[in-house]
Known about the structure:
Blueprint: E1 2-4, E2 7-12, E3 15-17, H1 21-32, H2 35-39, E4 47-56, E5 59-67, E6 73-79, E7 85-92, E8 101-113, E9 116-126, E10 129-135, H3 153-160
Antiparallel strand pairs: 1-2, 2-3, 4-5, 5-6, 6-7, 7-8, 8-9, 9-10
Amino acid sequence: MVFSEGRMFGIINGSTFAPRSDATANFMSQQAHSVDALLRYKENESKIASAGKDKHQGIDLYVLDLTDKADRRTRFFISARTFRVLWLEYEDTPPGSATAVKYTRRFYDYRLAQGTQVPFRTVLLEDGKQTLETRILTVTYGVKMEDALFQNPDSAGAASNP
Length: 162
């Protein structure tokens, strides 16, 4: 999935396609409510605020609230000892639903990958029920990719046709 120039498209085996609206909404939500969103808050012009300290199950936590340009809010719970994001929480209204759902994304099994701590297991809960588990097998940074891969296929086609 690629989000470029305000448009979402997917690429499979070199062919582009238009993803379904629910897949697009899930992808955008996953990007907006992620550890990456916290790490890139300045670049994304998001606002960050401390929500104080907390303690859950004997673990001291820093609590941060992140609000992005689209006014989507995410609350991060960060270990005061290791400074790892242990989980985040947010509310979202899924496509086709009239009511908001509370999501919790938990991060487990942090390992060092090329000098960066990466959670190799992530669990998504919707209103307290597990709906998704993601496991990372390998991490590779610095892979060279052609810029043309990220170009909007409509605008790339228009540019190549006289």
